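Section 3.1 - Work completed
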Amino acid sequence: MATRVIPPRILKKLRYNTTTKPLNAAHPSISPVIAPPSLFERSPSPVADAVSTTSTTMETANLNLDDAERLFASVSTEKLLRSSAVLHATAVGPMVDLGMWLMKSPVFQTGLPKDLIMAATKETFFSHFCAGEDAAAAGRSISALKEAGLRGMLVYGVEDAHENDGCDRNLKGFLHTVDVSKSLPPSSVSFVIVKITAICPMTLLERMSDLLRWQQKDPSFVLPWKQDSLPIFAESSPLYHTQKRPEPLTPEEESDLQLANQRLLELCQRCEEANMPLLVDAEHTTVQPAIDYFTYSSSIRHNKDDNPIVFGTIQTYLKDAKERLLLTTKAAEKMGVPLGFKLVRGAYMSTESKLAESFGYASPIHNTIQETHNCFNGCSSFLLEKIANGPGSISVVLATHNIESGKLAAAKAYELGVGKVNHKLEFAQLYGMSEALSFGLSNAGFQVSKYMPFGPVDMVMPYLLRRAEENRGLLAASGFDRQLMRKELGRRLKAAMF
């Protein structure tokens, strides 16, 4: 939240807008599709009602993740059965391997075999992990989430682009996503997501990252194209990707950079007009410096008056994450720039370790999973304290599937008085994952969003493959949700029979 192929050149060597402004309530709604009652389904009790009656007591900090009936009250039996089946399937390693092989195999890339694979994928993994094939379907999924007391992060499901025409096409998709968010019920969409790798050619991001790293090594190194930004590196940041002084950008590359800047500017302006925060996803360290540069320069330009429009992402499985977070927030405070962060553990463990090893360096990833947990929890605590002590200069999305981290953050928020529906704090999980944690946090009075990609099945296929690869451990460890789902399904069956 992986294994994406590193370029050969490198390998060779939550219910309310997160901003403080209210959303425009005049936008028309798209009504959710209500599934027909299934055999064992009873009328759901809206989770939002439970939230509205939750007082700011110690109960807010104590997540109730044991009451399966309450946690899944808004989930139909039909959907509960399908979710349970998909999670059980993805927890079986050989089955995931087989599915990935089938989707990648040249034999299944054309004709009838491809149609069969796409149809099977659409009815199973796609329908579970994605919001739909188009904007209308995504709108229905978002509206259904809102009925359950959750919000949605709209994700136009494209991955990388390698030339300007592709970047331009992707930009249109992102702009349309902002327009879709405006047509949905107010407050139902918390963020629109953008991947910089989809609106700026990958080779240019690699070149920019090389140049930024060299400037970190040699501060006298001048980058004439560089705009005002915030600290991108810390003393402990990995710089081994750039082994020698890179050549300046060529005139053609500078022209491509100007086009990329214009695309991001247009998207930021559209989000600003819609009062919709734009969250920039993180990538692997090969291109992350350039992504941070785009994010922070845009934050300086668009984040005004205690109202972050542009959010960046910090991956806490990186050893330098906490140090970079501290440097960036300190610099932003001096400049009077409000910041927004999404905090995640990270997604590219195998790739990063192999890349570092190829250069003869230690991995930039924490040596143990516990160190990663400690880093995430420490950064979370730091940001929550900033929210509590600020005049609101920080907004944060705590994107975690880890039960313990969710409990710690909820308790810390309560302790600091940041809890109940604070517009500066949002929890988030992937759509189709960690449902118990999502509903538990929502029941406790926090804003909670689900990361919801949408698009045609063949377009979203790279996303699904990447999720399958990078989330192997998470999928295999989904036993907590599966156990609660079985418990609730058993209870409904028993209630229907007796």
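Second construct:
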Amino acid sequence: MHDWITDNLSAAGGTYQTCIAGIPFLARKQGLVTVTCDPRNVEHILKARFDNYPKGPTWQSVFHDLLGEGIFNSDGDTWLFQRKTAALEFTTRTLRQAMGRWVNRAIKHRFCPILESARLRAEPVDLQDLLLRLTFDNICGLAFGKDPLTLSPDLPENGFAVSFDQATEATLQRFIVPEPFWQLRKWLRLGLESDMSRSLQHMDSYLSDIISTRKLEDGNPHDDLLSRFMKKKESYSEKFLQHVALNFILAGRDTSSNALSWFFWLVTQNPRVEEKILLEICTVLVEARGELSSSWFDEPLGFEEVDRLMYLKAALSETLRLYPSVPEDSKHVVSDDVLPTGVHVPAGSAVTYSIYSMGRMKFIWGDDCSEFKPERWLSPDGTKVEGHDAYKFVAFNAGPRICLGKDLAYLQMKSIAAAVLLRHRLTVVPGHRVEQKMSLTLFMKYGLMVEVGTRDLRPILEKVKAVAVEGSPTINGGVALAKDNGHEGSTTDHQLAAPVA
């Protein structure tokens, strides 16, 4: 579907309108959808006329049972209050340290041992499933301080995770089916609506137990988000606290795992990029820990080491440009408006901006827009990541609702990617089909089946030594990069990663 929308937008010059309800007098508003990928329109929607383009009643109705009035399903004062509260927490270093602990613990004790076991047995693994379990455990730990242990050697089924999946799948169906129909199904408890009702009950019970336990442990310090909200002077209801946790799980689970799945797939298709990433990782480790030794593998990369991986960050950004975790987003039009490209949008209609299509438009990214080229994110000398216009790359949203967890997402993705590539050479199982799944986030329909091989670092280390001897142009003081694809941006790496309050 996303490629079909991309073709339509390309043929229409970046914006078109379509009617999804052919009912007289209704079609002009509730049935009209304006679809765009033009950065000028996106900036207008997400920033210039922010108040005129809220989530709207349709979105809120669809998500209400799952997310309530949480930060991702609210507008106006309700959203602003939660945004300010969350922003104060996301700017603290302690939250970054907490994420680092959860990620490194899972990498060292579960993720890497599972991959090594698969290598020894010469059995393929579904990398998408492993990454989904890893990010789920991490975000649960960060959100409410409880590790559900879904990433364990026997890959157990977790009731909360299963319920969460069923609830999000039912929510997607609500987007597809007209509201009167899914409301009737909900009332009659039919199909996925019946599953959703049971799933929500299970999730409520699970989270209620956590909140009750946390209240009894009031004297014990915790650094998870739930505890931080509970420590505020305001008295929050248990339901509100549940929705806080669920909103952050929705934001931090599927998005990072999806991005990493597409990243690993792209890397397997682009050996040149894989080699540059390895050169960078090895250069950083040589400088920080000395030449190849057990210390490289005893512990995952630390904060300072991860922060120096500029080319890896560029490769992850390039992945999100081509395969954004949230491929489309929609807004409700409050008042009649005219977009910067001249398109009239009436009150009551909807506007959809295609993040997936934006990464594939020649008028935005040039003739090479379909190529996987991390160099487009680097400064000309290859020493830092330089962002593009904030409304050309909206994988983390933009404007007042820009993702608060962008820093944490990059920290997690870089840590996991570095740990895997340093230890293993991945190859996609011959004949495995990599296709997009129709879902709220950009899953792979059949997972990502890979064979796990041994990583031989000797050729990489020889190149690192050669670079050090020759004194070639480097990235972060180590890895020589080709200059042929560098593009100058407008935002420094520090600005790109800065927390937004």
